[in-house]
Amino acid sequence: MRIVIVGGGISGLTCYLFLRKLIPSILPTSTELDITIIESHAATNRRVRPNDSVDEAAGPVATTIGSALGLAPNGLAVLRDLDETLYREVANSGYPVSHFHLANALGWSLARLPATNQNDPQLHTVLISRQRLWDCLRMHVPDSAIADQCTVSGVTYTGDQRPIIKFSDDIPDLAADLVIGADGAKSVVKKSITGDGKTDQYPAVFDGLTGVGGFVSSSQLPENEPRGRMTVTFGAHGFFGYGASTVAPQSNHFAMCTAPKGDEAVWWSTYETTDVPDTRSFDKDDILRQLKARHAGWKDATIKQIVDEAVIDSIYPTYITPELPTWQTRGLVLVGDAAHAMQPSSGQGAAQGLEDAQVFSMLLAHYLERHFSQSAARAGRRVPTTAGEAVDQASKKYFEIRKPRVTRIVHRAKQMGDTKRKKGIVGEWFTYLILWIIGKLPTDAFTRNVYNDLPVNEVKKVIEQEKAPAPTFEHR
Predict the structure, then answer these.
(1) In Å, how far are 55, 373, 460 from 367, measured between CA atoms?
(2) If 395 and its partner were Cys, which of 102, 333, 354, 432 is the partner (CB 3.0–4.6 Å)?
(3) CA Rg value for the chain
(4) Angle of helix 445-452 relative to helix 387-417, nearest 10 degrees?
């Protein structure tokens, strides 16, 4: 059985690791499993292991995966289910955040919002370099599993309806039983799921927000800053956030407690623009001038110091994926940003990609087991007659489970993203009022649901129900 994952980012690597964990034990000895990741960037050279020297990892895709992210508790829970060692490496490579400190440009504190779940164990959000997270995952994937510097141009089908991957280089076509599109917001695989494979019927859309940011010494953070804090500040012309992104040596917090900050901190500023910026060719000096002008009157001394000493290397325009009618079709399935690129305001981009990988892999393992073991037939249940049918059943159930949760998160992210756009005086003060009110209320049901109600539990229920004997009815 050949599975090809297009895209070697966070979602693609996680898919590989889950499939390698769950699939081999259920296949008959006569069925060979081949899982390959196809990556357009150079990504075959693994790093020094994160617990040895994470800071030496420059990373081949640093310019494409942004600066940092907050990995929410539900995302960490996925990694914990996947591999305890990997989970600990990721957690200890970042800074545990117990709460978000919301402020305004005048220097007023507006709210303190929790960044932890209420499950057992209780996990904090981890603020971590995107590159570091990628490195941790990459260290667990063998070099032989990745075909890098290969550009996929499209996916078609053979006469027997197996997917065929086509390349833009002089690389032979590659047939597969399953193709997983983990190739981001501008996914090539998506074209063959939602259209004819040539035209993107649902192209990624620039949402008018652009981010700029980088890493600085944590000495620039407030000296008396409480442990576990990440500060996010709102103003009339955008948004500014900062926080520690590493912990002090030997601080093995495992995301279960706060820890002293390390030497590194991250900052980012988001602003509205009508034109799509060119990420490969832009005026760094002009971007820096805009940054300073945007935050010139802001009262937070930390923001002033960071902006005064800022060096601009990259900018990050925000692209979102329009709501897709489906994430799957015959032997093809989308995960991560390819299915649902969302605004960074969600705080869930990486976590939702990890959940996708876990849910789909569990369902695929389940339906393949039903096909190969025939246990479902003995229990009076319908059995997938082919591995291809098992793939399709898993893909459909995956979409059915994941779509409602992701849709709710995307809608909430849009609401939060709008607070980062330019505002008049009335809009600015209205935003402050709303954030202040939110801070006075108990944790809302939406946040509790996202952090605590994990989709893996829904998958387990589905599997238990389908493994149970079919109900029988007595005829009279």
Answers:
(1) 42, 10, 13
(2) 333
(3) 23
(4) 140
List all residues 6 or more positions away from 167 whose beta carbon is below 8 Å from its beta carbon: 150, 151, 152, 153, 173, 174
Average pLDDT, the chain: 88
Q: Other CB atoms closer than 10 Å to residue 66's CB: what's the count?
A: 18
pTM: 0.90
| CA angle, 204 then 137 then 46, to 5° | 105
In which band, very low, low, confident or very high, does the pLDDT at 377 lie, cut at 50, 70 and 90? low
The answer for 45, left when phi > 0, alpha when psi is -120 to 50, beta otherwise, is: beta
Where do we find the tokens 């709460």?
99
Which H, E and C letters describe 256-297, residue by residue? CCCCCECCEEEEEEEEECCCCCCCCCCCHHHHHHHHHHHCCC
3-state secondary structure of 88: helix
What does 92-117 look like in DSSP terms, one character per residue?
A: HTSEEE-EEEEEETTS-EEEEEE-B-
Residue from 162, 4, 143, 1 nearest 60 by CA: 143
Nearest to 98 by CA among 259, 303, 268: 259
Pairing of strands 152-157, 163-167: antiparallel
Position 202 pLDDT exceeds 70: yes
Nearest to 347 by CA among 68, 14, 123, 8: 68
Q: How does pLDDT run across 106-118, given as a tens digit for each residue?
A: 999 999 999 999 9
Q: Which residues of 274-295 are buried (b: 16+ CB within 10 A; e: fewer)?
A: eeebeeeeeeeeebeebbeebb
Distance between terminal CA atoms of the chain? 47
Q: What is the rounded distance in angstroms from the CA atom of residue 163 to the CA atom of residue 197? A: 12
Tell me the CB-side half-sphere exposure of residue 349, using CA atoms within 13 A. 23
CA atoms of 133 and 54, how far apart (whole Å): 10
Whole-angstrom Cα distance, residue 428 to residue 105? 10
Beta bridge partners of 181: 6, 334
β 332-334/178-181 pair status: parallel
Query: Do the beta carbons of residue 62 and residue 123 sit within 8 Å?
Result: no
Residue 176 has pLDDT above 90, yes or no: yes
Give 26-31 contacts, CB < 8 A, sequence gap 24+.
26/365, 26/368, 26/369, 26/372, 26/373, 27/1, 27/368, 27/372, 28/372, 31/1, 31/372
For residue 325, say if its preceding peptide bond is cis, omega within 30 degrees of 0: no
Q: What angle do CA 106, 109, 111 make, to 5 degrees?
A: 135
User: 455: Cβ–Cβ under 8 A, 6 or more apart, which residues?
Assistant: 355, 358, 359, 401, 402, 405
**Distance (Å) of CA 272 to CA 66, 214, 261, 295, 412:** 18, 19, 31, 14, 18
Alpha-carbon gap, residue 203 to 191, rounded angstroms: 9
